[in-house]
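Protein Entry — a single chain follows
Next Lines — sequence and tokenised fold
***
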Amino acid sequence: MPAPLWRRGRVRGLYWWRSYCEAAGIMLDDLDNHLFFNRTHLCIDATLRGLGIAIGDHLSCGEHLRSGRLFQLPGPVLPGREQYHLLTPDTTHLSRPVRQMRDWLRKAAQK
């Protein structure tokens, strides 16, 4: 089995691997012998180059999944925990295109 690729410097990388291994009923050990990356795109690039396996989301990996360059391993699918926020400096002076985008995003988020 290829070695897992981690994201260094943030607990999030190990959080996802621990969550996946727990859900799959497998042990997570021997962390010293794995590659570490501090950016998601570097981890994905290393996976594309055959250096190991990575945990990713459909936003980051979708293009590669659709093209067949990456594939999703069978096993548990983890629920996302990321949140996105729409920030504007002042809602009273938004241009028409910005208001339209804001309204579209709000509507899409409610689906």
Notes: Strands lie at 6-7, 36-37.
